[in-house]
Amino acid sequence: MQSPTIPARLRARRLFVTAAATLTLVAGSLTGATAAQAAENPYERGPAPTSAVLDASRGPFATSQQSVSSLSVSGFGGGVIYYPTSTSAGTFGGIAISPGYTASWSSISWLGPRIASHGFVVIGIETNSVFDQPSSRGNQLLAALDYLTTRSSVRTRVDASRLAVAGHSMGGGGSLEAAKDRPSLQAAVPLAPWNTTKTWSGLQVPTLIIGGESDTVAPVSSHSIPFYNSIPSSAEKAYLELNNASHFFPQSTNTPTGRQAVAWLKRFVDNDTRYDQFICPGPSSSSISDYRNSCPLT
């Protein structure tokens, strides 16, 4: 006579096969969703951002650096390149940064590894002369980007379609000049910018301006704020003002500056919408006296 336990075993086996098939379908769906997300933004680099990651002195990527001699370049005065050591993450966006009037790159060099460790190739430049004006510094920033993408030893790590500029003081004014002259740039981050030109109505590059409330060299009332207001509403823009900060705030490691600069670059150079939360509506703390943004982001 047939054992009464066989039908129960058959039922259990059918349940197991059905469950396995369901899990396979779900796994396939999740894999497809992950692939679709990756396909939507092939420039996304690094883990999901958090406040702790952005406020840390280094991001998730290990970095290295190399000096660039002024004798090996043209159009700018050499400098230092900082880049992620990873060779499995694909190419990275590139950013050129200029120091201010009478200053050298060493005055703001903390920005190099800070930004590079979030997945960028950064070239901090020396200018041809420490007395160069903003228009010249803008040209030098563009020359540095051209060198970075065509002649540098790390050129294969850089995506030449995803570039940005930044700078301090006259270097910040130079970054506005560079963004005006090369609208294909993905972002600009002027820090305590100084420029005799006050109107930037033709600028379309997403621009984050960071000013110091107590700046007496480039007072925000006659520099950063008019610059921000003159950028058309059709362009993404933001203005961050640091509470009681002097003109020289970029020359010291500064958490709000590092956090917002990285978030801005990740959002617009990497097209990483995970960073929207840090830009719109934006930061609010005792270290910030003003924040304005053109929300919504596109």
From TrEMBL:
Domain of life (superkingdom): Bacteria
Signal peptide: 1-38
Positions of the PET hydrolase/cutinase-like domain: 37-296
UniProt KW Hydrolase keyword: yes
Keywords linked to the UniProt accession: Hydrolase, Signal
InterPro entries (alphabetical): AB_hydrolase_fold, FrsA_esterase, PET_hydrolase/cutinase-like
Pfam families: PETase
One of the record's GO molecular function terms: carboxylic ester hydrolase activity
Protein family membership: Belongs to the AB hydrolase superfamily.
Protein's recorded name: Putative lipase
Source species: Actinoplanes friuliensis DSM 7358
